Amino acid sequence: MPVITFANTKGGAGKTTAVLLLSTELARQGNRVTILDADPQRWISRWHETGDATANITVVPYVTLATIQTVIAQHRPRTDYFILDLPGASSPLLATAIGMSDHVLIPIQGCAMDAKGGAQVLELLKYLEDKANIRIPHSVVLSRVNSMVTTRALQAVKSLLAARSVRVLDTPIIERAAYRDLFDYGCSLYEMDATRVSNLDRAKENAEAFANEVLGYVPNRAATRPSLSQRDVLRSAA
């Protein structure tokens, strides 16, 4: 039961949208998904409350540093993937969540502020590897990318990541109206009305390609690392 954590210490990086796209695609493929909503804005929990419950998806709201290990233990028997949506700010939960993860995904838009928020997560990952020999697999996913225009800022972000030898997913998350509409309808892309949502087919294709690429790095039958205790991770990050 792999744990996939989405982290960027800057809000508005497209983190929660990426969580929702991956979760609904994994569920559509028959996986049982438990979303751990640790974001105080509770967008995922509100999405789940808005519409009919999506098959194969459980959402646990108000996940905190004190409850995360208990919640994972309780839901492990009926979960194929845990997807963790962290706060869009620095928090004590960050180091512990990363230490419990099988893969960390860092959404970054093509702007300097997002890159700085992502860099804080990358620095923590490097610190854990250098100081505690704890290596957590991780990737950057470019989010809210304009399908028609590559901006100078996006090129700068790509160059910065390449210079740091950071793996960037081949599939960016394209800016689509359908992704914004998900939060209003409380459903997945496959339950939306194509006559009312523009470019829905392209949104589905993009979300599926994104999820399939992530699955290539985190298959659900992969042997997972033993979870680190909160004390171990916090001591390493101190």
TrEMBL record:
Tell me the superkingdom of the source.
Bacteria
Q: Which Pfam families is this protein grouped with?
A: VirC1
InterPro entries in the cross-refs: DNA_Partitioning_ATPase (IPR050678), P-loop_NTPase (IPR027417), VirC1 (IPR009744)
Q: Gene3D superfamilies given for it? A: P-loop containing nucleotide triphosphate hydrolases (3.40.50.300)
What is the official name of this protein in its record?
Answer: ParA family protein
Question: Where is the organism placed in the taxonomic lineage, from the top?
Answer: Bacteria, Pseudomonadati, Pseudomonadota, Alphaproteobacteria, Hyphomicrobiales
